[in-house]
Design goal:
This protein is α+β, with helices and mostly antiparallel strands. It folds into 2 domains: 205 residues, 2-Layer Sandwich (Cytochrome Bc1 Complex, Chain A, domain 1), CATH 3.30.830.10; 192 residues, Metalloenzyme, LuxS/M16 peptidase-like (Cytochrome Bc1 Complex, Chain A, domain 1). The protein is 42% helix and 18% strand.
Length: 433
């Protein structure tokens, strides 16, 4: 294999740069001179949200098939070449994007580009490999269903946003995955994997101009534009849904309508979520686990997309504690809405967010992900310093305002998975009045 070596003195200056190739592919770099590693990712603005009901799971299936052999490499050789330099080669699929990435030492960036471009542009989609991988994915679906703290999130999505693409499982179902054939993958790539939907993002020891040359050489021949697809926002279905399964614990997912990724109120929501259930010092952890001992695991999180989102609370607990814990969670939501945060709690939550963000910047992988997601959702970079300033500017009034927006009566949905007859839980528990 012939590769073009990165220039001597690679990554001698820091900063983020952006170049759009003639065919529309966006190339982003964040140079971090002190990093020995570089992470480079091919991001496709495509995920399970863009599938039809019959296609559900095809984006995730494609993610697997791209690694199963090209004209130049077998699946084993693809893995061996990155393993041989101590690197990481992987991919992940979300509801609105898919990423194929490699993390290597800076001197091995040429190899990473060669392997990634080869599997992305020259995968053979061999029929036998598709059948083998179909079996693997069906096992993955079964594994999720056998992992209740994962499965409860899919159950909640289906119940809270019924019938909407954002509610569908990323892996698909056994039925939809079982029906996909080679022609479906090739057609989907032709429709969705166009240059205008592609982002090449790299962070760490990298030279921007050199990378642009390599990406132009490898990807410059791609042509086409993706047909626009209107994105409707989901309608919610509040209330409690109980899913019976013989488990030792009951797994609870409670959610309220949240916000889109680019919502201007997001910084106040970050602070609110952190104080509510974002760590061991959070209100829910302290009240439910530390003071009452009613759950081993309880936390809250924000899930946001282009035009929708929710704030959710997850807990794993015994069936006997479900009624009490639901009451506690709903009461905490109402208290935050009515009283907000104290000064000390507000300061602690903001400091926690900024500390977590700074720690994440120590990884080239997290930096690569940050710049790519900023491009997807904002169309430009939002520097960490700007985020830190915005978090620092969040006031108690801002938190109370977002709590009033989010925590409204008649907007709460709950999914419960476990050995629970449901007689002790009803919609009256969800009153935020």
């Amino acid at each position: 294999m012939t590769t073009i070596e990165p220039p001597v003195g690679l990554a001698t200056t820091g900063g983020l740069r952006r170049t759009v190739l003639p065919n529309g592919i966006r190339v982003l770099t964040e140079v971090v001179p002190q990093f020995a590693s570089t992470t480079i990712g091919i991001w496709v603005e495509n995920g399970s949200r863009y599938e039809t009901p019959q296609q559900n799971g095809i984006s995730h299936f494609l993610e697997h098939i791209f690694f199963k052999g090209t004209e130049r490499r077998t699946a084993k050789q693809i893995a061996e070449e990155i393993d041989a330099v101590g690197g990481v080669l992987n991919a992940f699929t979300g509801k609105e994007y898919t990423c194929y990435y490699a993390k290597v030492l800076r001197e091995d960036v040429s190899l990473a580009i060669d392997v990634l471009s080869d599997l992305f542009l020259h995968s053979q989609f061999d029929a036998q490999e598709i059948e083998r991988e179909r079996s693997v994915i069906l096992q993955e679906i079964s594994e999720v269903e056998d992992t209740p703290d994962d499965h409860i999130h899919d159950l909640f999505n289906r119940r809270f946003w019924p019938g909407h693409p954002l509610s569908w499982p990323i892996c698909g179902t056994a039925e939809t995955v079982g029906g996909l054939v080679r022609e479906d993958f090739l057609r989907f790539i032709e429709q969705r994997y166009r240059p205008d939907r592609l982002i090449i993002a790299a962070a760490g020891g990298i030279d921007h101009d050199w990378l642009v040359e390599q990406i132009q050489a490898a990807f410059g021949g791609l042509r086409g534009v993706t047909d626009p697809q209107p994105l409707t926002a989901p309608e919610i279905q509040p209330g409690i849904a109980v899913f019976q399964k013989p488990l030792e614990q009951v797994h609870m997912h409670l959610g309220v309508p949240g916000m889109a990724q680019a919502d201007e109120r997001r910084y106040a929501a970050f602070v609110l979520n952190t104080a509510l259930g974002g760590g061991m010092s959070s209100r829910l952890f302290q009240e439910v686990r530390e003071r009452r001992g009613k759950a081993y695991s309880i936390s809250s999180f924000l899930s946001s997309f282009r035009n929708a989102g929710y704030l959710a609370v997850y807990a794993g607990l015994s069936a006997a504690c479900v009624h009490e814990v639901l009451e506690v969670v709903v009461r905490e939501l109402a208290t935050l809405r009515d009283q907000g945060l104290g000064d000390e709690e507000l300061t602690r939550a903001k400091s926690q967010i900024k500390g977590n963000m700074l720690l994440a910047l120590e990884s080239s992988e997290s930096r690569m992900t940050r710049i790519a997601k900023n491009e997807i959702y904002f169309g430009h970079d939002i520097p960490p310093s700007e985020v830190a300033d915005a978090i620092g500017a969040v006031s108690g009034d801002d938190v109370r305002a977002i709590a009033r927006d989010l925590f409204r009566d008649g907007q709460v949905g709950v999914a419960l998975l476990g050995d629970l007859d449901g007689s002790d839980v009803d919609d009256a528990l969800l009153s935020l009045a």
